[in-house]
Design brief:
This protein is of the alpha/beta class. The chain contains 14 helices and 16 strands. The strands form three sheets. Strands 7-6-16-15-12-13 form a six-stranded antiparallel beta sheet. A five-stranded parallel beta sheet has the order 2-3-4-1-5, sandwiched between helices. Strands 9-8-10-11-14 form a five-stranded mixed beta sheet, with no helix packed on it.
Length: 411
């Protein structure tokens, strides 16, 4: 009996090759894809997606590309250890040119003319760079320059950079401050949690044709998570090895002992994310403090408070899709309706090309800096903005006054 017959499968469920059909849409992956899709309808779309090795970035990019409409022209560059000139040549090659034996100025002219031509023909152009953590600072500076190509109305090149966590560190360099200012959205894909790990395994088995989906015993999932830390590529490796162990023993179901046999054959120890010390450190790092929360948004409908959210500095998305930080279930709210960006100066709201618009004081706004107490209307819902820093400063002043009065009384 063959491997597939023994497990009642139509294909191997845990192959390491990228296959969009097997992509598991965790909340994180759905969010990352939504950010990539935003490059299409934002004229100055520039998005950074980072994630651990094996987190599914490349598969996510393939899924995104497979769904692009006919009016989208795209290039994917995945060989990134290049000089600026080689990078431009790679981009032009992806667009169908033969850009060799040309000077850099000629390459830039070719690319400029191509982008303007596509814009004139009603096409949108997207440049996707995978493994972007390997890009040199000079190439990243070249990308910054490309992101500025524009007509008299708008920028005409959308850019998506995907890479490992080192890309985040590179972008934080003071020397790349100008590039970072061009970036619209940044998102990091973390590992799956224990619940998502179970759903991920079951999803791949179902796609591979097993029905009913009972190939792995209930006691196997916690062990898989313990040794993989929720990283998809490691889950695939461990699960596939466990299937081979079960196959060798002529079993039709994978049991806990098969997982442990696979762990032994692979020579693995428990993943660092599941050791006690790492978990304590993670909790300390992730523990929010009052001072870290700068923006509060209260969601109301018909004057009734539905929820209250507080956020640190950074960007959050509001919309009908469940992957948003502020989820509003309403047919009058677009999937990704608006974004709120909190910085040192306050908070700005921006309409993300929604169907029904964003209103403040009855007036439509595209992008506006908020004042404390502003009421934002999205369809039939309202968002009330509070700057928590102003409240904290007021509280601090009140406490200082009270302390002064107490001292005076004591004297």
């Amino acid at each position: 009996m063959s491997y597939l017959e023994q497990f009642n499968l139509s294909e191997q469920p845990f192959r390491l090759t990228t296959d969009p059909d097997f992509l598991y849409w965790s909340k994180q992956h759905a969010r990352a894809k939504a950010y990539m899709e935003s490059t299409i309808w934002l004229a100055d779309g520039f998005v950074i997606i980072t994630g651990e090795i094996g987190s599914g970035k490349t598969t996510l990019l393939q899924s995104f590309v497979s769904e692009l409409a006919d009016d989208i022209v795209y290039a994917i560059v995945s060989q990134t250890q290049l000089t600026p000139k080689q990078f431009l040549q790679s981009v032009l090659t992806e667009f169908g040119f033969k850009p060799f034996n040309k000077r850099k100025v000629e390459l830039l002219d070719m690319l400029n003319m191509f982008l303007i031509e596509q814009y004139s023909n009603g096409k949108k152009v997207v440049l996707i760079v995978d493994e972007a953590q390997n890009l040199s600072r000079k190439v990243l500076e070249e990308i910054r320059m490309l992101s500025g190509i524009e007509t008299h109305k708008e920028k005409i090149l959308r850019i998506i950079l995907a890479g490992q966590p080192e890309l985040k560190a590179t972008l934080d360099s003071p020397k790349l401050k100008q590039l970072v200012q061009r970036i619209r959205l940044r998102f990091h894909i973390g590992p799956l949690d224990s619940g998502d790990t179970r759903e991920y395994v079951d999803h791949r088995i179902a796609v591979a044709g097993r029905d009913p989906n009972d190939l792995f015993d209930d006691d196997t999932y916690d062990v898989i998570y313990r040794y993989t830390g929720g990283i998809p590529r490691l889950i695939n490796t461990l699960s596939d090895t466990a299937l081979l162990c079960a196959f060798a023993d002529e079993k039709s179901v994978v049991e806990g002992e098969d997982i442990m046999s696979a762990v032994s054959e692979l020579g693995w120890t428990e993943h660092e994310s599941n050791t006690g010390l790492h978990e304590k450190l993670r909790q300390v790092i992730a523990m929010p403090t009052l001072k870290s929360q700068v923006t509060e948004i209260e969601v109301l409908s018909d004057g009734e408070s539905l929820s209250v959210h507080s956020f640190p500095l950074g960007r959050i998305i509001v919309g009908r899709a469940p992957d948003n930080e502020i989820y509003i279930k309403s047919k009058f709210v677009s999937r990704h309706h608006a974004q709120l960006v909190s910085d040192e100066r306050g908070c700005t709201i921006e309409d993300l090309n929604s169907t029904n618009g964003v209103f403040i004081g009855g007036q439509p706004v595209k992008k506006q800096r908020l004042k404390n107490g502003d009421v934002i209307s999205l369809g039939s819902h309202e968002l009330v903005y509070t700057d928590l820093r102003e409240i904290n400063e007021t509280d601090h002043a009140d406490h200082s006054t009270e302390d002064g009065e107490a001292s005076a009384v004591g004297e």
